[in-house]
Amino acid sequence: MFKYTVHTQKKIQGIFEELEYKVRYEKGNFNSGYCIVENKNIAVINKFIDTEAKINCLIDILANLKVDEKVLSEKNAEFYQKLMKSHAENREQTLFDQNK
After folding, report:
1. pLDDT tens-digit profile of 39-92?
2. CA–centroid distance for 95 within its chain
3. Residues of 50-63 as b/e, b for ≥16 C-beta within 10 angstroms?
4. Nearest to residue 86, comparing CAs of 51, 58, 45?
5. Residue 58 contacts by C-beta under 8 Å, 6 or more apart in sequence?
6. Structural domain boundaries enclosing 79
7. CATH of the domain at 73
8. What is the pLDDT at residue 45?
9. Element (H, E) at 42
């Protein structure tokens, strides 16, 4: 598990940098809190949401990208795996809660 801090947010941004994605924080009408400009490898996050929501948006984007872990540094690859494991567990818990 990880904490929802600015430090964690920057660590996730480091993964995006190694994947050659740019993360920008701007205002906009994003239904999900973010949008992705596919052709240019840009992820745009709503700058008005709190840190936890920004981190969740970044994780959602990572979960939907095809990530080649070979391009990540060892440290970032490890952190990426932890993020994806946590994301999968949270998703399962959400589905479980919805089926109650």
Report:
1. 889 999 999 899 999 999 999 999 999 999 999 999 999 999 999 999 888 776
2. 20
3. eeeebbbbbbbbbe
4. 58
5. 9, 12, 13, 16, 23, 34, 43, 45
6. 6-98
7. 3.30.2010
8. 93
9. strand 42-46
pLDDT band at 37 (very low <50, low <70, confident <90, very high): confident
Q: How many domains would you assign to the chain?
A: 1
Cα(24)–Cα(86) distance, integer angstroms: 24
Q: Is residue 1 part of a domain?
A: no
* Stated pTM of the model: 0.84
pLDDT at 28 (0 to 100): 76
What does the pLDDT read at residue 24? 94
Q: Is 99 exposed, middle or buried (0-12, 13-18, 19+ CB in 10 A)?
A: exposed
Distance CA 79, CA 72 (A): 10
Cα 91 from Cα 68, distance rounded (Å): 22
Pairing outcome for strands 42-46 and 34-37? antiparallel
